[in-house]
Design a protein that fits this description.
TIM Barrel, 6-stranded mixed β-sheet, 35 helices, about 45% helix, globular
Amino acid sequence: MIPRRFLLKAGSGALLSMTTGYSAAALDRRSAQQAPANAYESLPAYLQRTLKTPDPMAYARWLGAANEFKEGDEIVGVAAPDEATRQLARELLENTTLAEIDANAPHRDGVFAVIDGTLDATVRSSIHSMTLGALKQFVLAKHEAEIHAIRQGLSSDVIASLVRLMSNDELVAVGAKIFNPLPGSSIGAKGYMGARVQPNSPTDHPDDIRWQVFNAFAYGVGDVLLGTNNVSSEPSSVAAVQATLKEILDVFQLSDHMPHCVLAHIDVQAEVEQVSPGLTELWFQSIAGNDEANETFGISVPTMRAYAAERTGRYGLYFETGQGADFTNGHGYGVDMVTYESRKYGFARALTKDVTEARQGDAWVHLNDVAGFIGPEVFRTREQLVRCCLEDIVMGKLHGLCIGLDICATLHMSVSLDDLDWCIDQVMPANPAYLMALPTKIDPMLGYLTTGYLDHVRVREKFGYRVNEPMWKFFQSLDVVDGDGRPGPNFGDPVAVYLAFCRAKGDVRAETALREEAEQKLAEVRSRGVFISQGHGEQTFDLEPALDQEIRAITEQARACIWEQFDTDFLAKWSTSILVTTESVGREDYILHPGSGESLSTESVTRLREWDKDAGSYNAVIVISDGLNVRALKQEDQLSTLVSALRKEIADSGMRVAAQNILVESGRVRAGYRIGEELFKSKQGPCTIFHIVGERPGTGHNTLSVYLSRANARTWATPGDVDHNISRVVSGIARTALQPERAASDIMEAHRSLA
C-alpha cells in the first residue's frame, strides 16, 4: 500500500471524466437567471419550486455554491459562479432546518451510515426543527458547555453546512471557545498549542530521525507525537523506525506523556505489532469522506471499526485528512470538499466511540488536517488556505475531536515561505490543538512547505500558548527553557540534547568525546540532505541566516523545476524508448489540472497498441514519467543506473521485462495504470508496471519514486481496477539519498510482497 501522503500527492487531480458530468448540469453561470428566494424559503423548498425537471444533483450543487470559493469545488462543478449566487445559496441554507439537511444527504454510503448511527437520537430530535441560521447564532452566542450539550446530535452534513454560513472572524470566535483535550493531558485545551514532531528521512535512516527529534527538543518543541512518515512500507523497515522512536521516549522516560507512530498503512502497523508486541503505540491511518475514496486508501468502514475495537491501550488512533482528497482520487460524485471533509471527522468520531468502548474509557484519538498538501487543483492562494484551516478547525471541534493542523503548501501552489507565516498568524487565534514541527519549513523527504520548530517558538511568544506540562518540565530539565519559559543555556543546541540522551543511557564517556561524536553524526545527517537547525537568527524565533538562505534557495529552485519539461538532449539520450503523451495541453494545464496528466492521448494509445504487436513476450514494463521533477530524471546517472539495476533484478526474478521503456511526457502516477490497462489486458497471468516518476523537488534532492503495480491480466483488463490501493512505492531515490542500486533491490522486495 502507498503510504499516506504519497498517496495524496501522487493521486492529486481526479480524472476529469469523473467530475465534468456534474459540471454540465451546474448552476446557471449568469446570476441574474437565478430565481430569487421567497421569504424564509429553505433550500429544498426553493428547488422544488424552481426546478422545471427533476435534478438529483441540484441540491449538492447549491450546497457547494454556499462555500467560499476554492478551485476544487470549481472542478467538481459546484462552485458558485459569482458572489450573488453564493449569497442566495447561503440565504436559502439559513432558512433550512437541520432535519431537512439530514433528509437530503447528497451522497449515501457506509461512511454516511456509520456517522448517522453514532448520533444521539434524543439530542438530535431536540434540535432537528432548528434552522441553520438559528444554529449559527446559537454557537456564536452560547458558552462552550451549552455547545457541547448538543454536539452529539449534530450530523456531519449539518456541521458542514453551518461553517459555510460563517465568516472567518466567526469561525475564529467559535474555534476559540470549543476544546476537546486529550484525556489526562492539556493537549487540545484552551491556551495550549502543541507539536507533532515529524522527523522524516529520505532513507528512513535512524540517525536522521534521532537528530531531528533531538533538534525539536532543543527548542522546547514536541509534546503530542513523534510521528515519522516512512519511505519504505516493508514491515521490517517500519519496525526499525518504530524502534528508533520508541528508544528515544523510553530513554528519556517520556512514554507516559507522548506516543510514537510510523505513518505506514494501518495493516502494516498491525503486522509490526503482531510480530513485535509493544513496539507500536498510536496507530495511524488516512481516512476519506466516502467508501470508494477509502478503498483507494486500502481501508473500509468495517476494517477500521475492527481495528478500533483492538485499541485497548492509552494510545488509540491518529487520523489525517485534507479537503479535496476524495475527488482528487477520482471519487467526488459531484459533492463539495467541505461536505466530505466534515464526513471524515464524523467517521473519526464514530471510530473514537469504538475505541472508547473497547477500552472502557477515554483514549488518545486525534486528527491532523493536512490542509494544503494536495496542490493548486484544490486551492491556490494563501487566503483559501486560511479559510480551509478555519473551516476544518471548527468542524473538527464541533465533532468533539482533538484536531491539529498542518498549515502547509505544495511548491506548485502560489504560497511562499513568508505567506505561511501570515497564514499561521491568521489561523492561530482559533487555537488548534497542535501544528506540525520540522527543523525548517521544508520536509526533507516529502518536499512540501510546513511549520518549523522556530515557528512554534514564535507562535508561543506571540499568542501566549503553552505546551503540555510534563513535556515542558522535561524541556526545563534539559536547560532548553528556564523556569520563566525563556530560552535557557541549551536553547537551540541539539548536541546538548544528545549528551543528555547518552547520559540517560548510562554512557560515561568524557563530554569532549561525546561532543566530537555528536558533531560527526550531525555532519553525516546533513550530508544525506536532512536539515538540522542550530541556534537562531536576530530573533530567538528566526532561523540561523545561512540556513534560512539555503531553504529559500531550495524553494525557488524547486518552483522552477516543477515547470521544467523534457528537452532535446534528454529525449536523444532515451531515444530507444517509446515516447507517449497524456491529455495535458502544455505545462500549465498539467500543473493546474492534474487529471489531464493521468489519461493518455488518443495518439499515444494507438502508438502503444502498434508497439505491443512487435514487442514480443513480456509480463513487465518499465515506465518513466517526468512527474513534477524532470531534473530528477536528468540528474547525473541516477536514472540510467536505476533502470539498469532494475532490469537485472526483474530478469533475475524470472519475469520477462519488455525490451523498451515507455517514456511519458507530462505523466502522473495514474498514467502508469492506463499504460498497464492497454498493454496487459490481452495477456495471461500476473503482469507488473514499474513506474519511475520524478517527484518532490522541494527536498533539496532530485528524487525518483518507483510505483509498482502488479495484478492479474483480468484485473488490468478492467479500467480503474488497478489503483493506488493495490500498488506500492519506493521513494527518495537519488545519489544524495536512497542509492539507485539499493533502490532496485528494495523495489523487487516490495514486488515480492505484492505477489
